[in-house]
Amino acid sequence: MQTNPMAYLSEMGIDTYQLMYPQRLSGYQVAAIILPSNCKLLLVSSVFPEGSQAEFLERVLKSMQLTLEQTRHIYPQQIEQLQGQSAEWLWFAGCQSSDVLQGKVLSSPLLSDIDGNNQQRKALWQQICTYSE
């Protein structure tokens, strides 16, 4: 049996992991997040969109004439790790918006709370439309 911590993770089927609060570890240097040049929308949410949430996100992006390839997700606690230029669109889903980032800001509940809720979808669409006028 191996005593390497990475071997334990591998045996449990965990390929990668991310520290939620790396600042709590003394001496740990948080890696900077650099958005790719093709990133047009940055989704900031405590929940990574998967399954039906990802499908809903894709439908919203299509209405904005964007693709999933032009979108990146980060967790709210990672905002301070962003380095360099911000994306054109910043979508804060289910979390407080941040003044640290500049761009066209959308603020909404979690994707799971919007999908199927006509009032929330309309509110999101109105936010999107304010930038196209």
The helix/strand order is HEHEEEHH
- List segments where confidence is low: pLDDT < 50 over at least 5 consecutive residues: none
Helicity level: 25-40%
Strand content: 5-15%
Main beta-sheet annotation: 4 strands, parallel
Shape: globular
- Class computed from helices, strands and strand pairing: alpha/beta
The number of helical segments is 4
Report the count of strand segments: 4
Cα Rg: 17 Å
Average pLDDT confidence is 86
Distance N terminus to C terminus? 63 Å
How does this model look, in words?
This protein has 133 residues and is an alpha/beta fold. It is 29% helix and 14% strand. The protein has four helices and four strands. The protein has helices at residues 5-11, 52-63, 111-114, 118-132, and strands at residues 41-45, 71-74, 89-93, 104-108. Strands 2-1-3-4 form a four-stranded parallel sheet, with helices on one face. β1, α2 and β2 form a beta-alpha-beta unit. The longest helix is centred in the last third of the chain and has 15 residues, at 118-132. The model has no long low-confidence stretch (mean pLDDT 86).
In short:
With 133 residues, the chain is α/β, with parallel strands linked by helices.
Q: What does the secondary structure layout of this molecule look like, with pairings?
A:
Blueprint: H1 5-11, E1 41-45, H2 52-63, E2 71-74, E3 89-93, E4 104-108, H3 111-114, H4 118-132
